[in-house]
Amino acid sequence: FTIKTNALGVLNVLEIARNIVPDAKIYQASSSEMFGNSVNSDGSQSLLTPMTPVSPYGCAKVMGYNLVRHYRHAYKLHACNGILFNHESPRRGSNFVTNKVVKGAVSIKKGLQDKLELGNMDSYRDWGHSKDYVRAMHMIINHHEADEFIVATGETHSVRDLCEQVFSKLDMNYEDYIIQNPKYMRPEELKYLKGDSSKSREVLGWEPEYTFSSMLDEMIERWDKEL
Fold first, then answer.
1. Contacts with 171 (C-beta within 8 Å, 6 or more apart), sequence order
2. Active site residue 31
3. Is 207 a catalytic residue?
4. Which member of 27, 38, 46, 57 is catalytic?
5. pTM above threshold 0.85
6. Contacts of 66 (CB under 8 A, 6+ apart)
7. From the candidates 31, 44, 55, 89, which is the catalytic residue?
8. Which of 14, 54, 160, 221 has the highest count of CB atoms within 10 angstroms of its CB?
């Protein structure tokens, strides 16, 4: 299903554009998962970093990314790739680790649950806010020239850091409540992501408005009201 959606789905959209609406502007939601465990010597992932995905999703996204580039060059379509690193908000599903941690911590604070089960605590991600990233998408697709852009904060935090910050904002020690469960471990772990978004900042003038801390505050506020 992942391959059909994220690779063949992109091909179908590009073929429709080429044959029916060649003047359409196409934005492809590319992903930091395309890089897998490739990291530059400066500790970041950039547009020059080799793509070595470690999941079916990442593999499919690499195909979609390359199809967009090919159709742009071969058929002169306005087709662009936004390589967005992890972006979160209060609306993120609680099956994703950020909102799972926030919802779990607030639930524990309110006495609704005792423990929180997680997988790899030492997986690092570059987390930003969806509002900032959707603004970047709009800038990318409306740029006068279709191109590839990375959207990221340039900061990386581990799941452990995430837990420590969220629980401490609620005056709790995460170590008292977190249980590691092997069932949440990936078959091949994506260890570290930190995006180099210098091109987006220089060419598009994009800058994130949220910090990691202010993003978490907004997510905590949502679950505090909802629970």
1. none
2. yes
3. no
4. 57
5. yes
6. none
7. 31
8. 14
